[in-house]
Each structure stands twice: as structure tokens, then as C-alpha cells.
Amino acid sequence: MNSLDTSIDAAIAPLADALSRVIFFDVTIGGNEVQLIVVWLIVAALFFTVRYRFVNLWGLGLSLRLIAGKDDDGSGSGEVSHFQALCTAISGTIGVGNIAHVPIAISIGGPGAAFWMAVAGFLGMSSKFVECTLGVVYREENADGSVQGGPMYYLERGLAERGWPRLGKFLGLYYAVGLVIGCMGIGSMFQSNQAFSQVFDVSGGVNGPLNDRGWIFGLVLAAIVALVIVGGIRGIARVTSVMVPFMALLYLGTAYIVIFANVTHLPEAIGMMVKGAFTAEGVSGGIFGAMMMGFRRAAFSNEAGLGSAAIAHSAVRTEQPATQGLVAMLGPLLDTVIVCTTTALVILTTRTEITEGIAGVELTSRAFGSVISWFPYVLSVVVVLFAFSTLISWSYYGLVAWQRLVGRSRRTTLIFNSVYLLSVVVGCAAQLEAIINFSDALVFAVALANIIGLYMLTPIVARELQNYLDYRDAKRPGAGS
Predict the structure, then answer these.
(1) Where would I find the beta strands (DSSP E) of 73-217?
(2) Model pTM?
């Protein structure tokens, strides 16, 4: 690190540590450290799964039909299609965390943590359904025809409609402030940090051209991000609708080659995940350690319960809000249940040793390189694409929250975008541990407000879901005859 990188890291680290201690509400139960904010998210996801009769199972068929352009004619206000809205939201969740957080979870919670990540992803599909349905219900249409929505809107407007205007206004403002700051962590600094880490590693490390030049990599990345975000949600959606399928297929295709090259170890790897989930032998904290780490990393991965994805989904063209709630469930299914589980199997089937001081993307890169020497270069491309896609989506999330606080104008937009792009540079010059603590703390902070609103607005979601099912039944051939 040069003096600039060291100074930046020194400023971030103590702030990240302080925020982490305050936000996570750590308590000790039976000798195990339990983070109540993580429990808060998982209990809510379980509640919504039961409340809507396992919509994350029976609703999947409807989700796929909607993505295919069936069961909804795409009329009504909005700016993007179901598919484009989904890709924009997925680009904000299927980021570097899907590659970096799995080895981190395994290194701390053991192989069983990967099992609990998948469980949390499955339950999180229900939370995503609720928040994205509400995002469309309470979105606002601007004078220029654009639409904006998300927790800032449904917390304030939805709770006011239910008879709690003051609570709704407070939670809406709290969420907006938290997201404006939080987007600099999860959406910007963590992504750029891990993108730089992977490129730095494959380009020669301390002997390569990027040594002590993290800020230069950050400047280049920020400049490319700036070229996309000037186009707003429509420009972002056009880019993500092409990028998301490509980068997902590239990563999964490469990962499955690695897994099949070690297919004899696959049964053992699966067994380690399942057994470790319920015994966690040799892992500090036992089953609670594996469960808490898996749930925490899954929440970071798919953001279910955080409300962020509802901002992207709110821009969809539809007159049936529940349709986008159903489509949104595909996000956690892909980015956590499928991608994160695949990453875990890559690490476990290759029997990659978890070495102290090596974590995140570096560990996954080692697993890829153990099969084909040049696979880490493919992973570098994937990591940069994952980071880039998340950077552009979260710039929009933060901007919508910022505009909710200070209004929509060219000046306010320029101010936010400038600060956001600066955080991209900062992320490349700080250490991973500080970035993770900072990102986690700020993101989980907004979940406090969002989950309260989701509980209180469940009747609205139930109404919208029934409205859509009735609408769909009425359009079936022979209906009403």
C-alpha cells in the first residue's frame, strides 16, 4: 500500500468497526454469538413464506411465465419490461459477494454455512415478493413520465394509508438516509475492492503493474460506471439485460467445469455442507456459528428484506403490482440458491485449503486455478462484470433515495453521482475486512425500518396477489362462459 491507500484504509477501519458493533446488536446465547439483526431478517422471511402459503414454491411457474411475456400485457405506467427490471435488480445482487462471501462464510462457519445460505435464499424469495409488490403499489409517476418507488415510498405512503402517517414518514426518511450512505458500502466500495483484488492478483500481485496503484484502477472503473449511469434507469436496464445473462452463464459454465473435473469429490462436498449445517464439528460456535454466518452472508448476497431491489422493480410497466413481486422471487433463487451454492461446491470439490490471510475472491480464484491454470483470468472477467453491474444498479438505488430527500434536479443528481463515483475509488484503496464491516453495518441498518413496514403492509400484498390471480383467471380461455 502507498501512503494514499494507507490513509484511506485508516479512515475507514475505525468507522466500520464502530458501526458494526452498534448495528448488529450482538448478544451471547448459550456461549454463541447471535446477531439479532440477522435473526430479524430470517424470522420475517419465514413469516412471509408461511403467510403467503409458500409462494416461493407455487409462484415460480407464474414468475417464469411473466418473464416469457405471458399472463401480463405490459400495459400501464412504467419504464422497463419485467425482464429488464429483474435484470437490473439481479445486477445489484449478483455481485462480487456471490463469489467472495461464500469462502468467507465457509472459512468462519464451516461448510454448513453454505447450506444455510441456500436456506436463507429460499426463504428470502418470499420477502422479495412482498417488498417488490409494495414497490409497484406505492410508486410515484413524475411529470416527465418516469416512475420511482421503493421503501422510501411504500413506508411513508403505505403506512399513512393504514393510519400511521407519522411512523411512515419517519421510517421512510430513515430508510432514505441509510440507503444513501449504505449504497457507498455494499453497492460501491465492496464491489470495487474485490474487483481490484482479483485483477491485482492475476496481474502479478506485488510484482505487477497495479501494486500501490489501487486508486488508479478505481479511477478507470469509476469513469466506465459514469458512462452508463448518465442514462438513468432506462440506460442501466438496457446494459444489465444483456450483461446479466452473459456473466451468469460465463461464471456458472466455468464453475461447473471445475466441479465436474472433481466430480468424485461431489458427494463428499454435499455431505459436508449438510452435515456441517447441523453439527458444525470443529467450527467455533457450532451450529449457531454456521447458521448465523450463512444467514448473514446470504442476506448480503440477495438483499431480501433490505428493500433495495424494490427500487428497480418499481420501474416495471404493469397494472398488476403482484406480477413484479412474483418475478422478483427469481432474484434470490439465482444469486443465492444457485450461484452461491455453486461457488461453495467449487471450493469444496477442489478441496481448496482455507489459508489464514487469504479470503474472498482470492480463495475462489485458487479453486478455479487448481483445475485449469488460466481459469483465474476468466474469473477476473466475471468479477469485474459482477462488480460493474452492481455498481451501476446501486448508483440508481442511492440516487432515488437521495432525490427523495433533496428533490430531483440536475444539481442534486450531479452531487450524488460525484460522491458515489468517488467511493468507487476509495473502495480500491481500502482493506477487505474494513469494507465488509462497513457494508454489512449500513445495509442491515436500513433493514430495521423496511421489515417493520413489510409486516404492517401484509394485507395490501395479500389484496394485490388475489387481484392478480383473479385477473389471470378471468383472462383464461373459456373464463366466464
Answers:
(1) 140-141, 147-148
(2) 0.86
